[in-house]
Amino acid sequence: MRQEDGSFTVEASMLFPFIFMIIIGLLFFCLYTYQKVVLVYIGSVSAERTAYNWDNSSKEAATGAFQYGQFDGLYWRLTDDQTLDALFGLTGQAQGTSYELHRSGSEVSSLPTRKMAGSSVAVPAAIRGTMQYQNQGWRRSVTVDVLNPLRFKPLEWMMGRHVSLQTQVSSSVVDPVEFIRTVELVRYYGAKFKNAGSGGGSPVTQEQAREVLEQQRSKGKK
Predict the structure, then answer these.
(1) Staple 58 to which of 21, 49, 66, 207, CB 3.0 to 4.6 Å?
(2) CA dist., res. 113 & res. 111, Å (int)
């Protein structure tokens, strides 16, 4: 009869390294998934808070509260918010405004970058990335790109490629009160321009409207 004593030990010693590697791979995959979820959460919170507080740079990032009397300039939506650029290409910021996370607020000058700097305090210091604001006229959005420098070497070795913790989250800036005001303004001046054209004069062109806005803008800087 064949002796089978110790066969289980021999077989187990052959299978154990493979089982151990599978378990370690699953553990690192779970850690990677957890870090990915945390990164998406951080990006989502940053983008949503920035978009929610966009109408006032004095708002607190976490609560949206601000002291009475603290607000931005009267015409910030036309100039600092790139509305003129979206309509007529006056400000030269068609590509939007970008802000590098964790850069000091004293190093930024424009209003959009100050708003993004104030809302980026919720991002941990170890997370790198950028925020970008873009005004397309019909849609205003805040896009957050975040990157976690954490590396999972065993998982990369098993998968045979570089595994990066990076995600992009976007949130739309919504301003219902200003939207109603803008609609009423367009209706008012639309009727004025229409009456001017039907009264014997030529209709106001886009270039003429652009010149008027540029003149008013230059007067406001003096």
Answers:
(1) 66
(2) 5
